[in-house]
Amino acid sequence: MSKRPTITIKPREGRKARAGAPWIFSNEIVMDASAKALAPGTLVHVKNDDGQDAGTGYFNSKSLIAVRLLARECGAAVDATFFAARLTRALALRGMLYAKPFYRLVHAEGDGLPGLTIDRFGDVVVVQVTTAGMEALLKPLKMALETVLSPTGIILRNDTPARTLEGLELYVRAEKGEMGRIAVEENGARYFADLGQGQKTGWYYDQRDNRAFIAGLASGKSVLDAYSYTGGFGILAAKAGASETVCLDSSAPALKLAEDSAAANKVSISAVKADVFEELERLAAQKEVFDIVVADPPPFVKSKKDLEPGAKAYRKLARLAAAVTKPGGTLLLASCSHNIPTERFAAECAAGIMRGGRKASLIRSAGAGPDHPVHPMLPESAYLKSLVYALD
Ligand code: SAH
Questions:
Q1: String of b and e for 359-375 (b: at least 16 CB within 10 Å)?
Q2: What is the pLDDT at residue 2?
Q3: Which terminus of the chain faces fewer neighbouring Cβ atoms within 10 Å, N or C?
């Protein structure tokens, strides 16, 4: 039996965990001096106050989510074999969903691996760790990756600001192979991602199905892909026969990848480097309109305290984006903010469209694709909202 310390849940607390949730909050546990003294990320036995097992998890006394459970019994091995089993399950699910090895392979709690994200680009994986507990387990994780996938490249994109809350340093490192540009195949199109310098892990797999939906409407249509990044929506629409495609973003390196991707797919796009709010106002003033407008901005609500200003920004974006959408056209508005609920986001989008004097019907409400599974007890962790409106 391992010598892991024990964390005890207070009487009558931990109800959600007992019902199957993988989180135990700091106010639910006995936070005595010995618990407080544990290094962030320590593996622990978790017991209910009657002495029954609540599971094995990792602990951080400084985090609101004090315990993230890895197994339902105490003393569970958390080693390369454990990781290999979880990775094998995650891989089997993606194998069922996709013909090509380009997807999110691990989506944290949704794949039973809290604090861990892995995006797969063929033989290369990009790993992002957000908790001290998972950081401490990098060694067995890497061993398991070798056993299950034997990737030619393992890139650690551990530069997400969320890490600082866990006391972790920010770094980007090629653990194996090299960083740099890589091809991404998705929905039959060829894109490029910069694994070392790009945003997040280099590519946003979460919008895959929403890109396909828009592309399905795009033949013969003009398309504005606002906040295009490397052209996820725009390139696919162009490939589906759009008459004109504008990719609009403030990042020159992202637009360069979009242009290279257009060339690789033998389509043409216009890449415009500008601030989206300013450019939409300029286009509207010139009465320039598009059949299809996509607006997929960075998160406007980064934390709970940003809810009101962020909600206002979504409303304004909806109004401006609607103003450049032709009558009879289609508008996709997306939010990747964890901290705005879908109903609130939809309400702000509706208010913005109406304030612009437009009539609209919501024709599709979707989220991330199935390679971003959600733990059924954590429905609030489904962060992506992607609403499509038909405008009169
Ligand atoms: N739609 C993209 C993902 C968008 S990510 C896809 O399908 O892959 C958000 C993008 O917004 C980033 O590329 C970032 O460079 C861009 N961005 C952030 N602020 C911006 C601004 N004010 N104006 C224009 N682009 C902006």
A1: ebeeeeebbbbbbbbbb
A2: 54
A3: N
Run of H or E including 326: strand 325-335
Examine the residue annotation and report whether 336 is marked as an active-site residue of this protein: yes
Does the Cβ of 337 fall within 6 Å of ligand 1?
no
For residue 366, give every residue at least 6 positions away whose Cβ sits within 8 Å of its Cβ, in sequence order, or none.
209, 210, 213, 386, 387, 388
Which superfamily is assigned to 6-71 in CATH?
PUA domain (2.30.130.10)
What pTM was computed for the model? 0.97
The three-class DSSP label of residue 221 is coil
298: CA distance to ligand 1 center in Å?
Answer: 6
CA of 101 to the centre of ligand 1 (A): 25
Does residue 187 line the site of ligand 1, with CB under 6 A? no
- How far CA 345 is from CA of 227, 331, 385, in Å, comes to 18, 15, 8
* Whole-angstrom distance, CA of residue 236 vs CA of residue 229: 13
pLDDT digits (tens, 9 = 90+) for 34-52: 999 999 999 999 999 999 9
Q: Would you kindly state where each structural domain of the chain is located, as residue ranges?
A: 6-71, 80-179, 197-391
- The first and second tokens of residue 347, run together, are 């309400």
Q: Measure the CA–CA gap between 362 and 373, rounded to whole angstroms.
A: 24
CATH fold for the domain made of 80-179: Transcription Regulator spoIIAA (3.30.750)
